[in-house]
Records
---
Amino acid sequence: MRQSYKDKTFCQIDLGLFPEMARTLALGGVGTMLYWSPWEDGFPSLYKMKIGDGFEGVTRIEDPFSVFDDVDLFIFSDNAFGGMQDHFERLGKRVWGPRFGGAIEDDKEGFEETCKEIGVPVCHREMATGITDLRKKLKNKKDVWIKVSLIRGNFETFHVDELRFAESNLEKIAHDLGPWKEKQKFIIEDTFPDSVEIAYDLWQVRGKFPKKALFGLEKKGDLYCCHTMDYAELPAQIQDLNSRFASVLEEYGAISNFPVEIRVNKKGEYVALDPCMREGHPVLSTKLLMIRNLPDVFWFGAEGECLDPEFEIDSAWGAELVISSAWVETDPKAVFVPRDLRNQVKLRYAAEVDGVPWVLPQTNAGGTLGSIVATNKSFEKCKAEIEDIEGKIRGGSVDTFPDAFHKFTKNWEKLQEFGIKNLPKIN
């Protein structure tokens, strides 16, 4: 690292998903690591008030404004609080975060318009207003995706083979939207056929990108695998998109994550699907394990300098297997992990009590506990290590997706068939 942070105070502003970031930074040399996620409500919940509590080296606070004068760096790990980020920066504080650039992700209609303005290809889209209009427009469509801006708490993007198979989903959405069911705008997006999803999975600083990168594939909600790579060796499609978005990111003043889901076909054509300005799950857990200079990245990034990652292992694979349990949808769950493996099990909405990690139930958490992560020069050794750790987690049923590694291997091989260059072979 460039400098010591033992006399510095960092404060992470989060929405509950990423308390492991605070723990990693604290163990990585930050002298005072504060963590806050919103808990205020007409009827406050203990489970919201305790996220991040008890983590080694981390102090959970009740109000970021109460510690404002003491904080040297604020880290915003999600898209919210654009106004707070802007305000803190205007008051002279170092701030890592997307600022109002979170809209690049949250406003899906605006994202499409921006892509068209800067020449980034996107799939054909059609708008529908209200559930009745959505049903009408889906009657003669097959193999499309339904998206909405911002309200991920009501429903996530979902696939429609054809209308008759989607009726139960549409009924639930109509119920959940209540009196706004005929006012909500929906995006109907065509599928980009015979393609594989790829992404650049690191940061940018006001449109500047580091010289080192992580290149990865995600099996949605199941598994993420990546390899270290020189930025100049990234697939041309990623470099093209990032270069076109650089001016947009600079205009927002965004200092943040910037993976954009891209699908590429065998002709080398690509389309942009969805950007991610915040930290992501999966992906963040892998970065926390693989990169050792994150305090520097955030500190100097907040000053406008885009640092390269320093990887724990050069030319390495990283793998992150999502773990879940239906129990945590309604009740807290203890996750017993051998102490020497604790850094390889990253949990969401979590706290520690008497040294035992607990995942706390939250609205829309969907039963996800977190991830098991590993890094190694060998992909197969990453896989074996994760499977070994999975067998050592105690505390009741923990579910994973056993075929996820096989599907990743198939997609990686498909990219090689498509002519994507510089990809290491799976060994």
---
Amino acid sequence: MEDTVLQQFKNQLAKIEYEANLRVVSLKKPKVPMVLYFGRNNFSDNSKYLFLDACRNNYGFQPIWCSFNSALVRQLTELGLNAVDFNFNQAKIIALLIKAPLCVFTISPNESLQTSTYKAALAGAQKVQLWHGVGTKQLDLALTDKGEMTNTQFVSQLAESSTVDYMLSPAKTWDAQWREFFGVRKLIRAGMPRNEVLTRAPFDHELVGSFNKVFKSEDAFKILWAPTYTFLGDEPMWMNQTIYERIKAPFVKRKMKVELIIKPHPYDNRFEAENKNNPLIIPSDPDIYPHLRHVDLLITDKSSIFADFLHCDKPIVFVKNKTINETDQENIFLKQLPGLETELSLIEQAIESVLSGDQFIEIRAQQRDQAFETNPGEACKEINSYFASLVPELLI
């Protein structure tokens, strides 16, 4: 037993020394003109659209998609796109990472890279955080007074989220928030890449990782219920099936055709097994954004999707959720929501009000302009063009 513990200790020391040396190598290794794009496990969110734009246009660097999803890597490779499977040939992956001048994240680098060895290999790269939308929730460094600061996993998460060098900030209203959440000083002013597809039809490959079809009926009034994540131990409000008929009731009264679809938050995929036979609930992982512009009414409890949906200029109903950790920072959405807020028990009356008259058209337009200062249709071009000017400066 003692020999086993001693050997484990020696192995751990050897790993620490190896990764320290790897960081030195990464910092000194000359870089080559490429940008690494990391996303969620599936093909979705901001990094997806930014990567595909870089593949369609020549910005002077090689775009590479990095993933632990082997099936996705095969699919992208078959489409002629550069993608690397991080499950195999660790030596080859490390050799790639130490040459990267710039890497892009949509979620936490911890979640994207998964291993401390890969993190060490990227020590010499500048890191860009796109995040996945703007909203009202507190994040990371803003949670130190609420979180358990003796929890090694929590502190590790905070440390890794604070390693980013650049942050995408679509408007000055969010600048202080990003500094509070991630301790970042360098900001890139541009729109959210995933919002481009809300303003136009999808380009080639933008449906990869998405649904073939979300709504069955072309002529129905389309409602999407997109909640934020459910805390452990809580029952998801969107699994209350008695609510479904109450949501539809105002349309039945008006003899209007209506279709309700519920897309849980990706962190709520633990509930998929018990909802697999519910025809209203779609999987949480696939990308909904290529279909979002067809939605007529969004129901949410302040998931960041609501801010993006402002580009669609359609009504929003907010279901109250007392468990959300809302930011203490100045936030335009905490002063005035761009839609009607209601208790879940009163959802029928809220939808009735929306159908009787849209009272939030001007507020949505004002908040859209405050939340997104640049052209949403130019987001990818603006960000990748910035990378094109930055990458040569990072080559040594």
---
Amino acid sequence: MFEFRLDATDGRARAGTLKLPHGVVRTPAFMPVGTNGTVRGLSPADLMGVGSQIILANAYHLHLRPGEDTVTALGGLNRFMAWNRPILTDSGGFQIFSLDKLRSVSENGVEFRSHIDGRRLEMTPESAVDIQRKLGSDVIMALDHVIPGESDRSATADALDRTQRWLERCHSQYSLTAGGPESQTLWPIIQGGAYTDLRLESVRRTLDLEDWTGIAIGGLAVGEPKPVMYSVLDALESSLPTRIPRYLMGVGFPEDVLRSVAAGVDLFDCVAPTRNGRNGQAYTSDGPLKIKNAPFKNDPEPLEGDCDCETCTTFSRGYLRHLFIAQELLALRALSLHNVRFLVRLGEQARGKVMEGTFELWCKNWLARYRGQ
């Protein structure tokens, strides 16, 4: 059920095949984010139409509403969402970072004040596993302690140690609970901030604990400068097992995705494609495009000339600008759909180039065009 085959490499870039209970994922692959059990503005048919192989849902948000017991009663997360392909659930670690004014962290876990109704709730490593077990996702993530990217060494080391202790508890709870590895798999998360030695320590301690089926890199794209993120990925690459997929959490801007593929990463997720799309920003190979800008009023061209998504094969830039100016809901779907397809297609293109052995030159040329060089 949980197999990863490395199909080809070109430099450090990889093309792989990941087998999960609900289907096969060919990597590199971008995972659209369905925080509340839906990718905002897009239907399951939309996602399948743009080639999404796997999506992410968030255990913290689904725990708050409607609750994991409701999801279980309605047939599990796949049936609940009407999505018959793989799902990965994030444990709630990112909410420790993003909801910093609504939570407190202790050794036992995290106490949150609900952003919906203000009620208090606690999430522990054990409950994070139990929630995801009930949701029924293919891949469940360990609870980690995420802190801002520019945190000092002392705070980073403290968060790393807590993440490792929580991982041991997640692993124990996962091993005890019903279902077993034939239905779900648990992945750990590497922390350590911008400090290379702490990152390598996290990898060592994590790999000493278990023979994992996949491994995630967390705590990046959380405020640190982009060069720092790239340098961390470069430092980590040789220490990560080649036989399992590598998942970089929270990264979804085209340049970051492609540079991370070049550093040996296989999976990505981010809300940016849909969030930016709803705000009028479209991804293109020539860099981001702000469709609300006046020069697009009479533009008859599609967002991206060779893009095969419904938006680009149907609508002009001028029409899309009109939809945004008129505040039509179709505008939000159209750009979200395109942006998700753009990143899914970027993964497909990168995979093809790795298989051909031409990735490195293609990547260099692609990034130069994207940056307008």
